[in-house]
Design brief:
With 129 residues, this protein is α+β, with helices and mostly antiparallel strands. It contains two helices and nine strands. The strands form two sheets. Strands 1, 2, 3, 4 and 5 form a five-stranded mixed sheet that branches. The protein has a four-stranded mixed sheet with strand order 6-9-8-7, covered by helices on one side.
Length: 129
């Protein structure tokens, strides 16, 4: 078995799509639209075959959790960029482009080299080597 995809609701579908395409080399499929439900989505596929579904629908309420604090439920997505240098470079690039860095690159107690940033919607993304 494998996890096929993870889904994220957003208020700005195009902005979130561009973020994952630009910074994580995702490839966006065609936009799906259901006019009756006012639902739109993209599947974004990454080199590994993992996919992210980003979705937009006006009736979905905003998440009231604080992105800078931990809370119950799914808390982050980890994306491996392949090396310590790439973690460092991408973290600096994102910071310079105005994205919030939650934790600078470092080795964790369980052996990962990672940083943590917030995507445009405040979702935690761990960038790992």
């Amino acid at each position: 078995m494998k996890i096929d995809h993870v889904a994220i609701w957003t208020r700005d579908l195009e902005k979130l799509k561009e973020f994952y395409v630009t910074y994580f080399n995702g490839v966006a499929g065609d936009k799906y639209k259901n006019v009756q439900k006012q639902f739109e989505s993209y599947f974004i596929t990454f080199d590994s075959g993992a996919r992210l579904e980003i979705m937009q629908m006006p009736s979905i309420p905003l998440n009231l959790n604080d992105s800078l604090k931990q809370y119950m439920g799914i808390i982050h997505i980890a994306i491996s960029v392949g090396s310590v240098e790439k973690v460092n470079d991408l973290t600096v690039r994102l910071k310079n482009n105005g994205y919030k860095v939650v934790s600078d690159p470092r080795y964790t107690g369980d052996g990962y080299y990672e940083s943590c940033i917030l995507d445009p919607d405040g979702n935690r993304i761990e960038i790992t080597a």
